[in-house]
Amino acid sequence: MQELIDKLDINQYLPAIIAGATNVLLAIVILVVGLFIANKVQSGVNKTAEKYQKLDNTLFSFLGSLAKYIIMAFVIIAVLNRFGVQTASIVALLGAAGLAVGLALQGTLTNLAAGVMLLLFRPYKVGDFIAAADRFGKVDEIDLFTTILTTFDNQQIIIPNSQIWGAQIINHSHHNIRGVDMHFGVAYKENTEQVRKVIKGVLEAHPNILSEPAPFIEVEVLNDSSVDFLVRPFCEGAHYFDVLYSIPEQVKMALDKEGIEIPFPHRKLIIEKESA
User: Fold this and answer.
1) Helices of type H across 52-105
2) CA quadruple 94, 95, 99, 100: dihedral positive or negative?
């Protein structure tokens, strides 16, 4: 009699035990397969950046991690669903929490979006000299939220990416050959051909100025008290600032040596005597 009772009890709970064991096994399978797929996706995204030199590793590392966590979130929801947990309310709760976090971190997310665009389109890279957000310096680091510059006086400037993306960016290092614009004024009495010859001689003697493309030396403006020349020698980008800050003094010395007047703004005052 007791054996019959025990047999009936086992038969009564056996379907529930089998169903529970099946759910546990399926949940384990879903978890393992989901984890495998998530890792494969992350690895694939990371390897995409390694294949192409122009793609930034920082951006694709972030995208790979983001893809992995999104997949794992769906995997966990699927596992909970196997145990009869109502996941609709969980999804709604996660959505509401995501919206609240997004509103709280609106500025941070704006910088993140701008950082993704900068790393994707690469208007500049580490080592470039750029002018952006009313700042000028050498790019030391680009991450998803900020760009770090170092100025010539060795200051570190950290600029939020949202202030850079969507505004004007001047990349002074994009081209290997740079033109260096300078302006020099001489008196109206001076011979412009002689002035051009003196300036050309200074440019030809400079070790960092290229002969091709040829320097541009022409009269640009006839000002009130001077004839202004636009002078544009060309050099390699690495020598830009050396040329910019060394040529003006050399031109001044050469013009002085030739007796060519460099005027300063002045007014002529004429006083007429009244006749008695």
Assistant:
1) 57-82, 87-104
2) negative
Predicted TM-score (pTM) of the model is 0.62
Q: How far apart are CA 177 and CA 61, in angstroms?
A: 34
Nearest Cα to 229, choosing from 179, 181, 183? 183
- Residue 177 token pair: 């050959």
pLDDT surpassing 50 at residue 70: yes
Tell me the C-alpha distance between 55 and 127, whole Å.
16
Mean pLDDT of 202-207: 96
Q: How many helices (H) and strands (E) does the chain have?
A: 7, 10
pLDDT at 31 over 60: yes
Q: Is the pLDDT of residue 267 over 90?
A: no
Half-sphere exposure of 81 (CA within 13 A, CB side): 13
Other C-beta atoms lying within 10 Å of the C-beta of residue 56? 23
Rounded Cα–Cα distance for residues 2 and 24 (Å): 32
Which segments within 111-249 are labelled E, that is strand?
Answer: 129-132, 135-142, 146-150, 156-160, 169-171, 177-179, 182-186, 216-222, 227-232, 234-236
Helices 87-104 and 106-121: crossing angle, nearest 10°?
80
* Cis bond before residue 213 (omega within 30° of 0): yes
Q: What angle do CA 243, 249, 252 make, to 5 degrees?
A: 125
Q: How confident is the model at residue 259 (pLDDT cuts 50, 70, 90)?
A: very high
Quote the DSSP letter at residue 239.
G
Residue 101 has pLDDT above 60, yes or no: no
CB atoms within 10 A of CB 20: 12
For the cut 70, the answer to whether the pLDDT of residue 130 exceeds it is yes
